[in-house]
Amino acid sequence: MGNPKAFLTVPRKEAGYRPVNDRIHDFGEVEQTLNTRDRQEQASRCMDCGVPFCHWACPLGNKDPEWNDALYHGEWEKAYKILRKTNPFPEFTGRICPALCEKACVLYLTTGEAVTNRENECAIAERAYQEGYVTVRRPQHGDKRVAVIGAGPAGLAVTEKLNQKGYVVTVFDKNEAAGGLLRYGIPNFKLNKSVIDRRISIMEQEGVTFKYGEQIDDVSAIAADYDAVVIATGTPTARNLNVPGRELKGVHLALELLSQQNRVLAGAEFSKEERVTAKGKNVLVIGGGDTGSDCIGTAHRQGCKSVTQIEIMPKPPVGHNANTPWPNWPVILKTTSSHEEGCTRRWNINTLEFIGDAEGRVSAVRVQPIDWKPNPEGGRPIMVEAGEPEEIKAELVLLAMGFLKPEHPEYPDNVFVCGDAKSGASLVVRAIAGGLKAADDVDKYLSHDE
After folding, report:
1. Total-model pTM
2. What is the DSSP string of 176-232?
């Protein structure tokens, strides 16, 4: 610990975002970077706590104090090596992780200003690529073959670890490129897809085979051809909203917009009838989470007229929530870069009906203010009306209400399930952790066969 008093003298400094009037005209990453001196100074704020709650809170068990100290001393390669011991893809999590470690940081718990772990992580990963610390590590492969179904964060994590353990890994994915949610759910303005391509190229050089456009429906059949199979297909089924008018044109699941836009940026072409676009439209986003936020940012870049976001749950408090004390995740109001670009946000709003015009296109949504009262029998609170129904004008409605947990049949003994496919929709960092755990399970299973 090079500067034991830095947390007292150095304030938290974030890189911030590109100016709104600049960033809404393109899909380039919105987050900026600090210069090297400022970044190392931010790393010096890490106190090397006796009990590092950051390490405990991170699903990957990242050793933040260790790599922050190396970063502070300018030992970038050492910092990367420490980071890579626990996290196979710091270039992903450094951009899109909600930083569970920062909400567990002692500085956050005492002053509200955590160490900038996420940004530090991203900076370390990018320096590693720039300076050549990221190298191709082609292992000596044995004769055990593993099939991984799904090339999202969980699938990539299990693949990375099993490949380095010497297994011959083939990854099957129904899409035209690897990444899963990283590529087809998260907008380019949060994660440029060249970041994914860079990592996939390395994995291919290390001996991994990727097969795209492959929809695996019969898991038992493929399990007979491989020593082990790992299912990492995520949560493909989005939660729908079955209210009157759902069939109207212009009412879409959020990923219909997000995945299509990412494909367009990658060079794909869609007909006018197929294209989901917010250009010139009043947009209503139903759902207050990160996916809804991504829809807002995408709508602005497509040239929407206005954006409104509604959420059925109450508005979270600002800064501190007494109902979610440490060590719970603090449920507080989150304002993203997309919200800053312009959005009307409303809470405690229930959707009643989609209203269409004479051509069968949505033109408005009938909603109603509601409230929640405690359930005398316990469990989920009871929704009650709290105002008169009203209409919100909208020519494009995006449903961003989460995803359904997949149900799996009984598989052969050599089939494993990991990531969101096992736990239900969660964070990318948890999916990666699930993939690493599955790799250990596969290794243990196949080692017993020897």
Report:
1. 0.97
2. SSS-THHHHTS-TTTS-HHHHHHHHHHHHHTT-EEEES-----HHHHHTTSSEEEE-
